[in-house]
Design a protein that fits this description.
1 helix, single chain, globular
Length: about 60
Amino acid sequence: MKIAEVGNIIEFKDGLQGIVEKVNENSVIVDLTFMENFDELELEEKTVVNHKRYTIIHGNDEN
């Protein structure tokens, strides 16, 4: 399992996407305002996602 880093874009829970703002031991804190339809979804701006519950869809370049 690859753990996300700050700045990565992850996808979780039926297609929700967000930018990782903080990495904790068992989870990440994600900014959901990244999504174009954020206003329509009526969600909180940030959420916590367990490392087992997301996939990284865009990571930082390792060069």
